[in-house]
Amino acid sequence: MKILIFAPCLFIVFLGLTSCFSNSTSGYTVNEVLPKSTFEKLGIQKGDRIISYDGESVNSVGDSMELYDKLKNHKVKLILIERNGEKQTIAVP
């Protein structure tokens, strides 16, 4: 995992995803999805904002790391995202 800091965002590169936490919104914005990554397979796209998973909010780096760990261990069933201003639920197979 790489953590890169660029004001005003904290970027995290992990499991094929580059994301940005911002103090102004809940969740985090996806900046890049790497080909053949877990997130690409789930249909997550650049610009999506990951809000929660299985009812657990994602508002910090620690929350996102917990999401990644649970995804890796097949313990996540649903991910709530916002795409183009609309909330969508992604079922994790």
* Derived structural class: alpha+beta
CATH superfamily heading = PDZ domain
- Please state roughly what percent of the residues sit in beta strands, choosing from under 5%, 5-15%, 15-25%, 25-35%, 35-45% or over 45%: 35-45%
Count of the separate structural domains: 1
CATH architecture: Roll
Return the average pLDDT rounded to an integer.
Answer: 79
**Treating each run of at least 4 consecutive H or I residues as one helix, how many helices?**
2
Helix content: 10-25%
Query: Main sheet?
Result: 8 strands, antiparallel
- Total strand count, please? 8
Q: Quick one: overall form?
A: globular
Structural features, described:
The longest helix is centred in the C-terminal third of the chain and has 12 residues, at 61-72. Strands 1, 2, 3, 4, 5, 6, 7 and 8 form an 8-stranded antiparallel sheet that branches. This protein is globular. It is α+β, with helices and mostly antiparallel strands and 93 residues long. A hairpin with a 2-residue loop joins strand 7 and strand 8. It has one domain: PDZ domain (Pdz3 Domain). It has helices spanning 38-42, 61-72; strands at 2-6, 9-14, 17-21, 28-33, 49-53, 56-57, 78-83, 86-91.
